[in-house]
Amino acid sequence: MTGNQPTSPADLDHAVRTRYSEGAAKQVAELCCPVQYDASLLQVIPEEVLARDYGCGDPSRHVRPGETVLDLGSGTGKICFIASQLVGAEGRVLGVDVNDDMLALARGAAPVVAERIGYDNVTFLKGRIEDLALDHAALDEWLSEHPVSNAAELAALEQRCGRLRSERPLVPDQSVDLVLSNCVLNLVHPERKRALFDEIFRVLRVGGRAVISDIVCDEDVPAHLAADPELWSGCISGALREDAFIDAFARAGLEGMRILERSETPWRVVEGIEFRSLTVEAFRVESGACLEQNQAVIYRGPWSSVSDDDGHTLRRGQRMAVCGRTFAKLTGAPYAGEIVGVEPALAVDPARAQPFACTGDRVRPASETKAGVLPVSINDAESCCEPGTCC
Questions:
Q1: pLDDT of 381 higher than 70
Q2: Whole-structure pTM value
């Protein structure tokens, strides 16, 4: 992250709220990059939504049938309405936004889309994407009856927020298969960005993933640009440097990050700094103890060797010894296509498995994966070279 700060979180919030309320009332061209969506999925969406949608990519193309999808900063609901058709009637789509004008437009369009597709699977929630546990609609209702005018009432407000987060979270822990976002993360103040990525991790189920399209930059944003609320609300000053954007997922505990799309031509160039669209995928994978279960993985190539997010070096074509947790991770998404998993001839009961030292790298001898299997003599076995057999 850049470390540069805008004037204050309150100034930034005001600038973003004002800019996007304007964007809900009329189309604001400078808020969006040109994006090509599947035209067949746009036919059921009201024109007022299509005309006022602002983004820099199309993460919805990675949605799968039956998933529970969360769209961060859902705005007028376009990505949600596209995702609703892709997940089907068995799936569910949640949109989270804090802007009342955007939410009103999205909620007004939801019944129209539901009638046209034949089912209603989209819900729009009011909340901040960096604090997905706090239900702002419930908070607004409470504040209407408990206005804050002194320190004691402020303490009561903070207590209420804590109870809402713990007892009635807007988005519960590990409740989502896929987190989407389209050009919104850059609008979050630097002091809150770490919490934002932590929230993505929190709400994802194990095996779930995030597909995020956002504006990134090729150099750090200087302080004088970071202090400009107008540039913040225009998706410029809050952009993370490309590598810092990917590192932010890793710091939150997500793994398997890969760049799905990177625009070759910058969207904007400000004082020589290039701002472009980047779409990144990241996964929440299984965690747990490292246990020896006599398993190995073989990296298929094409590189001579690679390192995973835990620091294991995998050498092309070699049986690298791994623990059971790493084996499960590397033989699942998104690694499975690159990895051959080698199970032992006799499975090791995890309850009896010994700790596995995940420091250093070693090749697992074939004798270890065959451990416990009695040798078979050629004289005791049916020869494969008898007439009519494999030879």
A1: no
A2: 0.85
